[in-house]
Give the backbone structure.
Amino acid sequence: MPEEDRRFIRATNAEAREIKRRALMKAALASFVERGYDRTTVSAVTKAAGESVGTFYLYFENKLQVYRSLYREALEMLRRHLEEAMRKPHPTVTGEVRALALSYLEFSREKRDYYLILSSQHLGQQDFINDGFLKDRLDTEALALLKMIDRILRRGIDGGEFRRHDTWKTTMIFWGMMDGLLLLNERSNLALSNSGLEDLVLYSVDLCLRGISIS
Amino acid sequence: MPEEDRRFIRATNAEAREIKRRALMKAALASFVERGYDRTTVSAVTKAAGESVGTFYLYFENKLQVYRSLYREALEMLRRHLEEAMRKPHPTVTGEVRALALSYLEFSREKRDYYLILSSQHLGQQDFINDGFLKDRLDTEALALLKMIDRILRRGIDGGEFRRHDTWKTTMIFWGMMDGLLLLNERSNLALSNSGLEDLVLYSVDLCLRGISIS
Amino acid sequence: MPEEDRRFIRATNAEAREIKRRALMKAALASFVERGYDRTTVSAVTKAAGESVGTFYLYFENKLQVYRSLYREALEMLRRHLEEAMRKPHPTVTGEVRALALSYLEFSREKRDYYLILSSQHLGQQDFINDGFLKDRLDTEALALLKMIDRILRRGIDGGEFRRHDTWKTTMIFWGMMDGLLLLNERSNLALSNSGLEDLVLYSVDLCLRGISIS
Amino acid sequence: MPEEDRRFIRATNAEAREIKRRALMKAALASFVERGYDRTTVSAVTKAAGESVGTFYLYFENKLQVYRSLYREALEMLRRHLEEAMRKPHPTVTGEVRALALSYLEFSREKRDYYLILSSQHLGQQDFINDGFLKDRLDTEALALLKMIDRILRRGIDGGEFRRHDTWKTTMIFWGMMDGLLLLNERSNLALSNSGLEDLVLYSVDLCLRGISIS
DNA sequence: CATGAATGAGTATTCATTCAT
DNA sequence: AATGAATGAATACTCATTCAT
């Protein structure tokens, strides 16, 4: 049978299955981000992925499970992205914090959809979407991130770069500030140019760091 | 039909109409915040408000319009709340900024539902929810708020409290930071105690102000 | 607006509502009997009843509930039908039993659909269809019917018509026999003419009664 | 593909084929009886039989055909079971009829699933399930069974055990009665103990026979 | 003005059957 | 022969909105 007569590709091995799964998740992600959970229809997702409805249910238990898979994945990606940035050596702790901030900014741009899934999380009050598992996961990951920042700040104190202070508070402020700025940028038409946002982020970091810096 | 058979009150004057309208909006707000827009049903809202479905459509064009009305209202309330805080005289500009921050915090607690409507706005990328009108309004109000902060900062410079710097950037950072902290508090189980949050907010303000303060 | 432009009738009072409800139940009954529970679609039922799908759910919680309602109703109708037959005075107990048998036969003909709903009950092993409530109801009603027969037989003994024997056993045999004959008639193409079945039923009653009659 | 990678057994000869076929039918029977025709899924049947979906369609045209095969088989089994009982010599015709009744009872217990398939047949008004072929078959077999009983009764008359009467009617009554009692037992919670049912069956036979016996 | 019955398009999910491997 | 991935039609149920009363 000529290749072009084929209506669909049979995923017979693990790899092929994974490709289809990814295609479906990708389409789902795009829709969740563009239209939100409830307005995302399974049928539209499959159409976008070039699969049939039935196929969707071959790969996912139901609509909610894809959402959760995506959420978990986003969380994981963010963690990896930030860890990556931390791996490089930095002469000063100040530089390290700046790098972390830029890395988050980068993530929000390079993996915009994943970032949006994560940031829409307060939509997550809607507890139908967040079972205990996801909540725990979220807390664990978020906590890990915050602790990472906290450790950096402590190092700054130990190294004499920062004055002695409540690092945990500063950590939360850093994180909240970053989130807040990205959100502000995201939602408002006041939206800044790319370089503008980068500028702003660095400026904010400097502002805060100055507040805790020695001399 | 004899008067005593009527189960409902006929709103013949503006005041009575307004009461019904408020009841419906209140019920809608509660549901939007608890269940989200899509999972809020008109029928449930009217039931909660003790009105009939038909009545709903007498007072609102459709479901979306109530949402928009609530959003506008929330925006307006926030503006008034902050303006109120600004009306009192403050010996130092630093104190004024602190008061502003605390006022926002207060709003997020006293008018929690309205605050949540505003903060879920990034859900609002979903453009079905944001027509041009709402977007303009949002921008106008948000801009007004930001400008208010900017003015305060400029006054701080003029009065010699702050060093000369890009106040607009600082403004955005202030706003983003506040939003970010409230969000962080809202979404995470790490949630702080009441006094803890207040503390954190003041701490963050101080941190930033120290960054722009003279001496 | 001229009468013929009306798309539907608004059931505003209890009576009108009842009429619609009946129409839906009737259509559902016909379909359940003809096609079985699973192959009965709500949409087909509503179409047959001249109503819309939504209307169906205005009158019934779901498909299963209509089925249960019909089942309950059928049970109730059968009981009333047989009681009616028993109300008339009968010179002999033998005559009374014959009348009862004929009454059941009559029911199976006059209310064929209801009879079929009842008789398909062993389909009811499928416990999804029979909740505790229905089962209890069924047992109660069935027991009442059987007891009714038992009482008659006892009266026959007391009156000297029948010899002393285990009336409960005979009762079960009577009932089983009737059911069995109607079923045999229903399912086989051997099907008897109307008068043939009547004949057979009376013959079977006589046969059994002779077995317990004195002399 | 190397031999050892094969997870399945290739049925290359008639015997191996028959084994697979039986496994599928057995699983199907269990499901039909437990869940009913419509709620039986091909996929569940194959899973239970340890075969793949595709294999199912290798052995059966479709779902309906298995059902029909099972039905035919059940009919055949019942006939053989009863014939078996008739093969033994019986001193009296009365004893023979009793033996026949007990044999049917035995069948309903030993081959419960097959018995249930047969007895749910009035579900079979649903003509999707009964094509002409099955109907004819049913009639032929049923008729054969009935004729067998009829012959016994005639022999009873000829032998002077029973009085002269319409044996065909009695035959139908016998059959209906048996079916009715088993059904009554099956569906009601009033359900009798094992010995109770046996008792009842024999009692019913005696009752009827007394009605046609010569003094 | 107020009501709530009626509508029917819309959506998640299932499952018999096919067919490339 | 055997497999099981893929298909998509089918179906129960929901809900925003209308409009006769």
Residues 132-158 of chain B form the longest helix (27 residues). The domain at 66-212 of chain B is CATH 1.10.357.10 (Tetracycline Repressor; domain 2).
